[in-house]
Design a protein that fits this description.
It is a single chain. Helix 2 packs across helix 3 and helix 2 crosses helix 13. 37% of the residues are buried. The protein is 49% helix and 16% strand. It is built from 13 helices and eight strands. The strands form two sheets. A six-stranded parallel β-sheet has the order 4-3-8-7-5-6, sandwiched between helices. A two-stranded antiparallel ribbon has the order 1-2. The longest helix has 15 residues. The structure holds uridine-5'-diphosphate. Uridine-5'-diphosphate binds next to helix 9.
């Protein structure tokens, strides 16, 4: 069941006005009550993609929570005069959930990334969160038509299902499969397994605090520059939307 909550509309995406600690409490409640939950962490690239793709747009709209993963979304919310509480980085939320899962003895499934990456990520999770049960894992380069992954999740009934296929794939996979599961918190986590595995470094805290984590990622992975071209378009669209009061629906 969806909560009644304050949503902030940025272009065509409705973000939850919520702090990370309140969100974590709500998610703990949902997981403890076996309520199936779908959470999207959306950055400006995701917002722009949702604005250009009807299918993806409805997938995001059907999520129980959409949270701002990216300073661009926070800036946009200020531009439209309805500021969001705070940025909630997908990776930080993933870590919080692993910590709570470790305390509560929950189980988790890891889907995505290259085989050696997900294996290393799971190995590190086992070391750092020894009381978290590992329900299973699979790399992200599987045959989409095969149901072996969803069958495994159906059977193991994990509490947390982290899907690291990058957008839009991860949200589409969740949306196409979630109906067949009884319980679980489903969350797309992008490149987070690469960080968990130690293959990619998270920006130092100082960079995160200065809101330039995106620049750190760009320096580490220069091939991402093309993806970033969408950022000025995003700001422009939000700006135009504010002043011309044009509806993007
Ligand atoms: N990936 C995957 N299957 C695919 C495409 C991508 O498992 O078909 C993985 C890829 O190996 C990487 C992650 O998805 O681990 C995508 O990371 P990216 O940095 O692009 O995601 P973002 O955080 O930007 O959404």
């Amino acid at each position: 069941m969806k909560d009644k909550k304050h949503k902030v509309k940025i272009l065509n995406v409705f973000f939850d006005h919520i702090t990370k600690s309140v969100l974590v409490n709500k998610l703990v409640e949902k997981v403890s009550q076996n309520q199936k939950t779908f959470l999207v962490t959306a950055n400006p690239e995701i917002v722009m993609y949702a604005n250009s793709d009807q299918v993806y747009s409805s997938v995001v709209k059907n999520a129980d929570y959409t949270i701002p993963d990216g300073i661009g979304v926070i800036i946009a919310s200020k531009m439209i005069g309805d500021p969001l509480s705070e940025r909630i980085a997908g990776y930080d939320l993933l870590i919080e959930l692993l910590k709570v899962g470790n305390e509560k003895g929950w189980s988790a499934y890891f889907l995505g990334a290259k085989k050696e990456v997900v294996e290393k990520a799971v190995h590190n999770v086992k070391t750092n969160y020894p009381h978290l049960k590992i329900a299973g894992w699979n790399d992200g380069y599987f045959d989409w038509a095969s149901s072996h992954i969803s069958d495994e999740i159906k059977e193991k009934k994990p509490d947390l299902i982290f899907v690291a296929l990058g957008f839009p794939k991860q949200e589409i996979w969740i949306s196409e499969n979630i109906e067949s599961f009884d319980k679980g918190l489903f969350m797309g986590v992008g490149g987070s397994f690469d960080v968990l595995a130690g293959e990619v470094k998270r920006a130092p805290v100082a960079w995160q605090k200065m809101n330039v984590e995106w620049l750190y990622r760009l320096i580490q992975q220069p091939s991402r520059w093309k993806r970033m071209l969408v950022l000025p378009q995003f700001v422009y669209k939000v700006f135009v939307g504010k002043y011309i009061k044009k509806s993007y629906e």
